[in-house]
Amino acid sequence: MADRAAEAGPELDDLEALRTMIRIREFEEMCRRLFARGRLPGFVHLYIGQEAVAAGACLALRADDQITSNHRGHGHVIAKGGDPARMFAELLGKADGYCGGKGGSMHIVDFPSGMLGTNGIVGGGIPIATGAAFANQHLGNSRVALSFFGDGATNQGVFFESLNLAALWRLPVIFLAENNQYTEWTRTEDLTVGEITQRAAPFGVPARQVDGNDVTAVHEAVRKAAGRARSGDGPSLIECVTYRWHGHNEGEEAFAGRYRPEAEIEEWKARDPIAALESRLLDDGVVDAARLEAIHTSERDLIEAAHEWALAAPAAPVEDALTDVFSPAGP
Amino acid sequence: MGNSYLVTAMRDGLAEAMREDPAVVLFGEDADRSVMGSTRGLIDEFGPDRVRNIPLSEATIVGCGVGAAAAGLRPVIDLMVSSFFYVTMDQLANQAAKLRYMSGGQVELPIVYFAATGGAGSAAAQHSESPHPTFIQQAGLKVVMPSTPSDAKGLMLAAVRDPNPVVYLQEASLGGTRGPVPEGPYEVPLGQAEVRRNGSDVTVVAVGRTVTVALAVAEELDGEGVSVEVIDPRTLHPWDADTVMESVARTGRLVVLDTARQSCGFAAEVIATACTEAFGSLRAAPVRVCAPDVPMPFAPQLERHLAVDEHKVKAAVLRSLA
């Protein structure tokens, strides 16, 4: 049992968590501004308000663990170690983007950092993480795969199928549901029976609900689940209750109308996961106001420099549209 | 050179692949007892860690193939019946077929998805599909369909070795046909057609089970003074247009046979290519013989009525010669 504690991974580094959350926030704020100015093609789904989930979860994983993600995936990519400059380049259709301009916001992939794909299909990444977990188990490399998905994805068939398969084969996978309380433009409770955590019970998969705006709580839950997975005890389900400050996607005002009470949005903004962590660190005397300001400044500078770099990068050449369908590599 | 059933030859190709690379794992519906025969006995040689019976969760299993391939394995997935691919279409078409492209080529996905395909014995509309045109349309999926036991083995080994997702469709009605099969490992290269019979008057491109039909008609017409060339593309995507166009340039006439429904099918693609790339050599309008645009019916006589048979093929060839 002593080994299991070691396998659970390190305690959360609060400052690293804070830095990661602020980096995500700054990245998303830049995306918001760029979209508002008509600079971003396509759809953009912002992660603002949910930063504690990505940061807490990814900091509980090893660098060689894998994640899959969804349409609201910028935060997951950054938290797993992605480079904001290459992310901006991707969003701007540049050759130096992670996918050379072929993926865009919903398809950023960074295999070297264990990021097996954001995903435009709700629930689409769940079987992929389950399969990666199978490979990890089969190869005996002690890696864990974690799938981030939203509350809406828990109504997809592949969610239940993957729970069954992962439980059956005791796969080292963590199913992490980010319940931001809206399935696109409808309250999730209007579409979903019962509690998300109850959905794991028939499969004998342990499940727990945590405050998704508390980075420490998220980290602790994922740390335990990762330890369990690495020990060969199989999958876990974690529901992180949180809230997206922005719409399903940017620009939705034009077609979705008002579907969330203003008071609800304000209530959740008052529970800002970044402010909450900062407040605790100040109270505990870990940082002072000047240190916090320095962290914010350095992350803002990093994001601005990343954006500048991406702006200056060459556009993806049109002939690239025809490459990368098949790998030419021989056997 | 042994003599083997097509389905056994395919199994032998898979066994060769599993012998040469421990990263090859097999997920199959009833993979251990293998009612179709395509994986029979593999669990005895390779054990239950590498030969996995899967729950009937086709979509998740197809997606697991993507994740397992991305994480270092070479999964081979047996879905038993090609109609069941429709259950998996998000994971097959949106994930497996597109992840490499969407990622800008960051990843190789060496996956083989295989199943028995086509109508065979009153299995009716939900077990008799010939869905290969749907897969061709996805880009990102290679599609193979062998017509002989020898090719069944060599195409399987080539498919497993290929660094891309390959949909391997084994004609259900050909599973029990016998033919010579070389011993040991060998590849039939993907994307390479085989000229089954040389001829000079008309080119017949035949897919899967229709190869046998084409050869029978060619033999019959030979007695009537008509020389028919029969080409088996073997790989339907990417297909060997060069071999077909070279033949059409010589014969000036083209008939294409396919088990799939006619609209937007492989036959349409071959004929469109001939019309755009070899129009000057065509001496007659190309003709296609496919399944009509209806689901497969149940009653034996109704099923037979839809089949690409010798009568229809002979009529098509004669029409191209008229």
Can you describe what's shown?
The complex is a heterodimer of chains A (about 325) and B (about 325). With about 325 residues, chain A is an alpha/beta fold. Chain A has one domain (about 5-310): Rossmann fold. Chain A is about 45% helix and about 10% strand. Chain A has twelve helices and seven strands. In chain A, strand 4 (about 180-185) and strand 5 form a beta hairpin. The longest helix of chain A is centred in the C-terminal third of the chain and has 24 residues, at about 290-310. Helix content of chain B is about 40%, strand content about 20%. By secondary structure, chain B is of the alpha/beta class. Chain B folds into two domains: about 1-180, 3-Layer(aba) Sandwich (Rossmann fold); about 195-320, 3-Layer(aba) Sandwich (Rossmann fold), CATH 3.40.50.920. In chain B, helix 1 (about 5-20) runs parallel beside helix 7 (about 150-160), helix 3 runs parallel beside helix 4 (about 90-95) and helix 9 (about 240-250) packs across helix 10. At the A-B interface, helix 6 and helix 7 of A face helix 3, helix 4 and helix 5 of B.
